[in-house]
Input
Amino acid sequence: MAVNGSLRTAGILRVVYKQVSAGDLRKLQAVSNDAPTGGGARDFRLPYREFDPVMRKLLPHTKQLQRVRGGGRKVVHFPCGPVKYRKSNGTGAIEVELLWEDPTDTRPTEGRIPLIHKHFGLPKTDPELGAAFFLLMQHKTEVRAHYAYERDLRAGKWDGELTYHILSCKDSPSRRAKSSVQGYIDCVAEVEHCHGIADD
Output
């Protein structure tokens, strides 16, 4: 399927998607601080090298914060930007400032999106919904965050091009075993990426 199809027609420029794994959910619930699930930080991690270019397009501003880098505290410039999210309880949309942080000394290959639990709450955990995905969707005038569920995707409740790319990534026999389903669709550059495909 073309990358520049129904998404671009709907005014969507780019999408970043990430499956919320069991380890991610434990972190968001603050019940995990073990190394195999990525420590106690309540954030989402993405492979930095592959995702940094597209995340900078979604979050085009810059914020300076102090972080430990190279063994000492330094001022680091982070991409940031406004992101809208509609609460599941029906109380309307909120707008938050989202950061994209570069790798730390201890996790040198991972970028992270912090404060997921604070900004967007937790995804639903009903097994009948299947896998949960966190989406960042860049429209022409704004960026929106969503949780999408496998059952709804397979039932055709989301855009067809979006559904195709996410489920093709999830279902790909070439994706490395136990690798998380995560990728992006750049309708402007007409490229898509599914992380973990054996030859990527």
About this structure: Residues 6-194 form a domain with the At1g16640 B3 domain fold (CATH 2.40.330). The helical segments are 6-9, 22-28, 48-58, 116-120, 150-154, 160-171. The chain has one domain: 6-194.
